[in-house]
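stage 2 :: seqdesign
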């Protein structure tokens, strides 16, 4: 008999516990389900956002290829304003900066490349932007600003950085420093790279090192 009464007491205790706690449990389950479905919805939104950005970037490339500058700039502005959290905004700025550079709109190119430096979280694209920004400053005869973009180590681009540094130093009239920079660039190119053009630059400055070409 005692066992029967103990079981009834346990059942009654369980009922009481449910009466006191069912609302909290239901709320916890609801919150958990909301979090799961909310996370799935957010991921779906991000995927759709990225797809839209990709399509707009393709449209931008098409417009630039068709030389429709105003349409390309409008798409680029949309990408920068609404898709800055995707890689497409920075890549759009790269393309538009190149288009501006080719048209000798150097200040426009500079602003776009600076935007990448200020907003992108991709170290690789920032290194590319710095390289191109140095070229823009070089064209503007702002040699100190150009050289400032080429400071530091960029393992994937060290050869390109060093060669451009040599070009800028040569434009500034520092032949010995330019030849030293070309030498560094040659060391970074490796044996399999096309060294012809760079080697000619280096050899043409042999007199700066006190040797004959």
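stage 2 :: out
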């Amino acid at each position: 008999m005692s066992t029967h009464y103990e079981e009834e007491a346990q059942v009654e205790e369980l009922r009481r516990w449910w009466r006191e706690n069912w609302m909290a449990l239901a709320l916890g389950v609801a919150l958990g389900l909301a979090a799961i479905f909310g996370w799935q919805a957010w991921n779906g939104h991000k995927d759709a956002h990225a797809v839209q950005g990709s399509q707009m970037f393709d449209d931008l490339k098409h417009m630039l290829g068709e030389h429709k500058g105003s349409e390309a700039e409008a798409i680029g502005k949309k990408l920068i304003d609404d898709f800055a959290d995707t890689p497409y905004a920075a890549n759009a700025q790269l393309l538009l900066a190149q288009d501006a550079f080719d048209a000798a709109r150097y200040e426009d190119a500079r602003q776009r490349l600076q935007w990448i430096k200020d907003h992108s979280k991709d170290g690789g694209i920032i290194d590319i932007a710095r390289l191109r920004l140095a070229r823009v400053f070089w064209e503007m005869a702002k040699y100190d600003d150009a050289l400032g973009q080429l400071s530091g180590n960029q393992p994937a681009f060290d050869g390109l950085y060093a060669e451009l540094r040599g070009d800028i130093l040569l434009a500034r009239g520092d032949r010995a420093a330019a030849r030293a920079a070309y030498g560094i660039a040659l060391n970074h190119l490796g044996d399999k790279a096309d060294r012809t053009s760079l080697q000619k630059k280096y050899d043409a400055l042999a007199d700066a090192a006190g040797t004959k070409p």
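stage 3 :: structure notes
- The chain has nine helices and no strands.
- The chain has two domains: 39-149, 152-213.
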